User: What shape does this take?
Amino acid sequence: MIGLGREYREEKESIVMLAIVDYEVGNVRSVQKSFDKVGIETVLTDDPEVILAADGVVLPGVGAFGDAMEMLKKKQLAEVVCEVARRKIPLLGICVGLQMLFEYSLEKGRTEGLSIFKGVCEPIVTDLKVPHMGWNELIIKKEHPVLQDVNEGEFTYFVHSYHVVPEDKDIILATTEYDGEKVAVVGNDSVVGIQFHPEKSSTIGLKILENFGRMVQA
Assistant: This one.
C-alpha cells in the first residue's frame, strides 16, 4: 500500500499531512474533527506505509491500556509507532496514547507498553473521586513548542484513573493538581504526550493541537 502514501503526498505536497493511527480504539474521529477545526489536514489510517510517510503522527486512545496495546499489536502497528519515534517524525500521544509511550502499565496487572519513554503508568491513589474526571488547571513546568501561548492556570479536560510516572523528570512539560501533582504533558524534541483530552478542552485544547501542527511544519 506504499502507493497510497505517495499519492497522498503528491496530491497535497504543499500541505502538512498528519496521520492519525486507526487501531479501532478510542476517540479517533473527534480528534480528527478537532484538527480540521484548526485547519490541519489529517488522514485516518492503519496502513504502516502511510503512517511512516506522514509529516507527523497522532496516537489517540481511550479505555484500558491493555486493550489498546492488544489492538495496536494485533494490527501490527506497535513497531510502526516505535519506528516513527526512532525516525524522529513528530509523534503526539493522547490520553491512553500518552500512557502507551511508556514502558509498562500496572492497570489490571502488568502490561508492556511501547518503551519510547522510560517510566510506568500507575493507578491514581487518592481519597478523591477516581477516575479523575473534569476540568483541571495546568501547571507549566517547561517551555516547549506544543505549549506555545498556553498559560499557567489554563483549564483542560481530564478523564483518567491512571497516571504516568516518568523516570526522566526532564520530559515533564506540565502537571495538574489532583491530591498531588499528576503529569499532564510530557515531551522531547519530537515526541509529545498529553493526558487530558484536547478535543474536549475547548479553545486551549485546539491551541495545543495547532501547536503540534506547527511543530510538524518546523
User: Anything to note?
Assistant: The helical segments are 2-11, 28-37, 48-53, 65-74, 78-86, 96-99, 202-217. The two ends are 28 Å apart (CA to CA).
